[in-house]
């Protein structure tokens, strides 16, 4: 191959900052037990340990109910909430909050809601996309608002309620 052809049709990959292309970053957390009162933020999420369940890449940092991102980029963040109304007409909310100033101010970016008949469960799911450009200041948290006689259900062996993170690419 001539140098002229190689310049016109480059092949190969560029190694930058110790990795090739976009590295995979996915993580997941479950709520291990029920919540029956207002909780902001939820501080009991944990990584699942079931067969084949894992995270890839560095993974999120989770401390005192606050999730920090391991790498800048566009992130897909999803919530799943299994909410049980304990009596007819009662409701509850699960919220996703973001901060761009390390927690001085929080903005609600998504909520899941259930209002149902007595002892009926609803699994709610929602997704949003976040542009994470500052690892020190851009963070998320999840909260539960038990508006009236409801439970956010947790489980230790399966994900009844959880939060999921996936880095889609560079910003």
Brief descriptors of the model:
171 residues; mainly beta; 5-stranded antiparallel sheet
Report on this structure:
- The protein has 1 helix and 12 strands, in the order αββββββββββββ.
- The chain has one helix spanning 3-8, and strands at 15-16, 19-20, 26-30, 61-63, 66-68, 73-85, 90-99, 107-116, 120-132, 139-145, 150-152, 162-169.
- The strands form 3 sheets. Strands 3, 6, 9, 11 and 12 form a 5-stranded antiparallel β-sheet that branches. The chain has a 5-stranded antiparallel β-sheet with strand order 4-5-10-7-8, with no helix packed on it. Strands 1-2 form a two-stranded antiparallel ribbon.
- β4 and β5 form a beta hairpin.
Radius of gyration: 20 Å
Query: How far from one another are the termini?
Result: 35 Å
Stretches with pLDDT under 50, minimum 5 residues: none
- Shape call: globular
Total helical segments = 1
Approximate helicity band: under 10%
Characterize the quaternary organization of these chains.
Answer: single chain
Beta strands, count? 12
Give the rounded overall mean pLDDT: 88
Q: Tell me the structural class.
A: mainly beta
Strand content: over 45%
Order of helices and strands: HEEEEEEEEEEEE
For the sheet with most strands, the description reads: 5 strands, antiparallel
